[in-house]
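I am writing to request your help with a piece of structural work I have in hand. The matter concerns a single protein, recorded as an amino acid sequence and a row of backbone structure tokens. Could you please explain, in whatever detail you think fit, how the structure tokens follow from the sequence? Thank you for your consideration; the sequence and its tokens are set out here:
>
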Amino acid sequence: MSNLPPPPPPPPPGRGTGGRGPSGPTPPNPPGKRTTPPGLPKWSIALLVVVVLGALAATQFWPSSNAEKVKWSDFLVQVKDEKVASVTIDNGSRSVTGTYKAGGDFTTTADTQITDGVLKKFDDAHLSYAFKAPESNWWAGLLTLLLPFALIIGFLIWMQRRASGQMGNVMSVGRSRAKTYDADKPSTTFADIAGYEGVKQEIKEVVDFLRMPERFREIGARVPKGMLLVGPPGTGKTLFARAVAGEAGVGFLSVTGSDFMEMFVGVGASRVRDLFQQARKMGRAIIFIDEIDSIGRKRGAGLGGGHDEREQTLNQMLSEMDGFETSEGIVILAATNRPDILDPALLRPGRFDRQIVVPLPESEERLAILKVHSRDKRMGADIDLDVMAKATPGMSGADLANLVNEAALVAVRRGSKEIERIDFENARDRVVLGALRESMVLSVEERRATAYHEGGHAILATVLPHGDPLHKVTILPRGMALGVTWSLPQERHTYSKEYFEDTICKAMGGRVAEMIVFGHLNSGAANDLEQATNISRHMVREWGMSDRIGPMAWGSQQHVFLGEDLMSSGREYSDQTARILDEEISTMLHAQQERARELLTKHRVGLDLVAEALLEHETIDGPEVARLIQQGLGDRVQTGEDVIPETAAD
């Protein structure tokens, strides 16, 4: 339930990065893409056909006669008055047309079928009448005849176009999916990146070579063919590639490692060839491959052998980079956070000549990154970014960008119109410790056990001389923990044996405090024991910090699925040595547990005071814990052998 750091290997030196730019300029139209010539649009032909057919239909359906329309009852009255000269009766539609004796035409429609009674009225009026069969509509007949054929022809045309489109996709499956960036419209430059002066200098050499190759050739210098950016996620490797695209002034092709893989065999190698062909057509160009570890893993390694398609793609890339046909004027820039699984042939000089480490930023770089991400935010007057930079060790550029955005979200939820210091504090707690679980309700016994557990961690974090200083301790459930003791790691590049011993002792503080106060144990110390065991295992097996083992080291066991051979991943030591390693790890853990028991027994009054303060306030900071320990001792805070450093009691 404490945020103890994992065993940290010495991080490589470097600078930080910060700043975000737009996603990049709009790439130009790809070569070979056909554009529509100027002129009439395609839909104009279809509109013309519809207009012509409508005009033909109008001649058939629109009436062209000027005859007078009369009601059927009025027509019968006029027949009786012998005003009608003649009529023509349509058998199908009951339509009756005729002429008057006085002149003029008329038309009417019978209410019912023409019966014998109606015809007798015509005869009595000496009316001339005739019947005609209904005329067939040639337009409707033509539509009935042509409509099925039109539907069939349209369906066949649609199928042909669909098949041709799919065939075109199949035929172009071997084309490279690289995005081409226009050098005339830079979006991100080196000025947008905070820190990383050494990395900038190495990359600027490549950019300068592509711009002014004569300057380097005069003294016989050869530019590196490839540079590999290596670093943890979020440190700005892709951001550097975007800056190169903006600074280079030459062709820039961007592609990810997964773009080479496809369901068809041989597609990856074909796309690699097409990628380098595009670069050669540009004369001088930079190719950026992001996440190159997806295709650059060790060949013939891993459980069950290698992946044939990936190995063919890698072989083609090796040949293009440094084969019989050299690629003059083409520089490969790649990024990965797993350099340990890359194929050795890919990393040799002549292919990737340089490996540029992009580490996590230090305090000054974090300050520059925070300034970059805060320049478009409305910041309060009480915010000190320098203090916040020192309080965020181990955060990458992406983490800091997320921290600033999270602080803005907290300010909005709080109803504030600007970001204040409390918003940054809450955002940091949320990012580092996890979200506050307000819905979780602990019982009285659980709260008391959690208070003493975290109090034990806090006491040891304060009195131990070589550990990280205590920042705050809380019994509010956050993330997956019921309580958290947070120490601020100091800027370090190497770690002493005493530091790791104090860290293990602090991890044992919660477990030992519960044993002293309650006389029994619970499952709350599972994470503490896991971290303490991992640290002690690294101390004994890898860092040579065991007197019994001596100056011997065995690396961590590799996973055969990640590129290591099955036979070489076996244990490198005998069963006798394994027994000694286990005994040393157990001895180290028991020794630190006994040391924690002695210190907490000495500071039992301070432990009770800290636990009571946690039950009352739920969260207390490091200086308050130091004050309570001093109150419990009555004069000063001391360990069994040394006095607590003043920095922890301030």
